[in-house]
Please model this.
Amino acid sequence: MKNLLIAIAVFVTAPLLAQTHEITKHNGEKLEINFIKIKNNIIYYSAPESVEEKKISKYAVAQLNEKSKINSQIISEKIHASAKSDFKKVVVLKESETIGLKEVDTINSFFGKIKGQSRLSLLEMGKKRLKENAALRGNQFIVILSNKTDNLKAVTYTY
Model:
């Protein structure tokens, strides 16, 4: 009985003591959350009325504002890619880092292999080609699905 009362007390008081923050996403959306931590480019949080842990990519979040104080932390800068020359701005993500970003398209490409080229230079060339295609379409993020010379494939994401 004592353990049950302690458990109920913890569940009732935890939301009252939790730090309330506000996330401002790059697309303008604002979410009221209880901030937990940032780890591996993922922000972990819970809704104010819930204890369920949720995640969002740090690339989708512009600012983290603390409600109790007037503290504001910039999480990531907004990326603007609109031309092929902006390929250096395009970020290659893992699939797990795309939570909160909007999937736009799948891009395909290919390039010819030059005799004597190393495997590493081929991988870099393929990554550059996919980033150029994404920047040309105005997309800021890609997840590479295949990086073979005859079958370059990536999924593009934006805010």
User: Anything to note?
Assistant: The mean pLDDT is 87.
